[in-house]
Task: inverse folding
């Protein structure tokens, strides 16, 4: 999970929490068998998703103390597809989401429109890639319980990276980007019969504080910034295609909220609404862009 925010002035913040799901009692099932079932579904997902395009409407809203908007919300329209990229830590290609900006705030995109600080990056990791064979051993999977999602009985699995890695904090002008591998925990809702993933949640494990370089501090401003909490949810839905007839389980939406302290905003909301799926017939290819380390 990666966070980006515009550093403007000092404001307070409040904590938020994630909603629980139904817990499982005695007799936990075989987690490895469930994860293998999810892996098979994810591998099928990628074999078909590489031939699909979609439109993504992204809305970025930042709020200050008292839930006041800081400026106008930003609305962006992207064309999105999944492609294979050269892996950073493995010899195997890895799936990434590629975005091409089409519109910015209701008008055709121009070169200067992309990217602003909180905008999605052109390439990002695909969340289900953790279930592919090249990545699975990097994660620990635990049984959490049973629940219902999208009208289906689901197995709920929690995951985390096996080890913490050093955080990456990058400044570019007034924008700070924070990457915290191993500092998040995720939860997956998978269809109990098919292994199809219907929902993925991820949250920051705890508050993270980092120093603000002297050259980035405002006079009299704090020496540190804090990410108090961060949560995200990706939901999937079935999409029907014709010629040939086929139904695929594809992402439908993503929502995230991050709470900051000592930053330009206290809360940052980002939503992705995914629609207008269409299919094209070409071969998948390996692209030169690398996944961010």
Result:
């Amino acid at each position: 999970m990666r966070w980006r925010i515009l550093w403007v002035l000092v404001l307070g913040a409040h904590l938020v929490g994630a909603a629980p799901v139904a817990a499982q009692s005695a007799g936990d099932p075989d987690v490895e068998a469930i994860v293998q079932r999810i892996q098979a579904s994810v591998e099928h997902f990628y074999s078909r998703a590489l031939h699909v395009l979609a439109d993504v409407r992204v809305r970025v809203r930042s709020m200050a103390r008292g839930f006041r908007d800081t400026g106008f919300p930003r609305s962006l329209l992207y064309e999105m597809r999944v492609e294979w990229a050269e892996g950073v830590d493995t010899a195997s290609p890895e799936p990434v989401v590629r975005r091409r900006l089409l519109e910015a705030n209701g008008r055709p995109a121009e070169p200067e429109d992309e990217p602003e600080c909180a905008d999605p990056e052109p390439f990002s990791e695909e969340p289900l890639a953790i279930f592919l064979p090249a990545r699975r051993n990097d994660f620990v999977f635990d049984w959490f319980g049973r629940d219902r999602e999208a009208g289906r009985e689901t197995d709920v699995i929690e995951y985390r990276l096996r080890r913490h890695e050093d955080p990456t904090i990058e400044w570019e002008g007034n924008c700070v980007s924070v990457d915290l591998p191993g500092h998040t925990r995720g939860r997956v809702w998978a269809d109990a019969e098919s292994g199809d993933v219907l929902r993925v949640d991820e949250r920051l494990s705890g508050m993270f504080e980092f120093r603000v370089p002297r050259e980035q501090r405002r006079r009299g401003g704090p020496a540190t910034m804090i990410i108090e909490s961060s949560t995200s949810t990706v939901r999937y839905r079935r999409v029907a295609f014709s010629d040939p007839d086929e139904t695929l389980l594809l992402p439908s939406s993503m929502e995230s909220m991050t709470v900051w302290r000592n930053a330009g905003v206290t809360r940052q909301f980002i939503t992705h609404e995914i629609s207008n799926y269409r299919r094209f017939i070409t071969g998948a290819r390996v692209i030169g862009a690398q996944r961010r380390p």
Q: What stands out?
A: The two ends are 12 Å apart (CA to CA). Residues 109 and 245 are 34 Å apart (CA to CA). Residues 31-49 form the longest helix (19 residues). The helical segments are 31-49, 133-136.
